[in-house]
Amino acid sequence: MSVDQSALYEARLELVNFLIDAFADYPPEELLERLLEGEFTVPDREVSEELDRGFAKLEEFATENEGRDPADVREDLEPEYTRVFVGPRPPVLPHETYFRTDTDFRGEGLAKVEASYGASGWTPPEEYPEENDHVAVELAFLRYLIKRQRDGDEEAFGFQRVFHDEHLSQWIDDCAEETLSTTDETFYEAAAHLLRGYVAFEEEIANAMT
Fold first, then answer.
1. Residue 153 in 3-state DSSP?
2. How many domains in the chain?
3. Does pLDDT of 153 surpass 60?
């Protein structure tokens, strides 16, 4: 069965955009409105165990908040995001150099992440206030590479494979697991499952194309 490449790129970008919004800050009202109105694309068939769990949690979240004002839902999610990811003393610091044992937190490993960005010609956008090894920034880099691939740049698959090997796939499972062990908020449970499943899915694509 042939794969609709256009639809696949659209799905990849929609999911990475969701994850960036979920982990960069409190989820924007526009995203919550789409979720609550059923406008977020959920596959009608099984994809992988982790992605399926994440999509099921998203549907659960939408059901729990059906008919509510997205602004009120966002207000409810703000304290949990702050508790889990901001602190003071947050239980989860979603930074590569926090989870890796081969570098100090925000130490020389951060420079290695930034070198990977620079090698592909990408500069992190200024709207992300966190250090450049934050999960939202690394996902934004992945989004940049996916857009290059969609435009026919095959070299971007190589950059993506190396980034998985050297950075993103080295710590995301631990970050997702720590998030799941810390929160029982359905939205962030969904985000954690989707994060782990999505990174594994993208790694598979990159390896298959290089």
1. coil
2. 1
3. yes
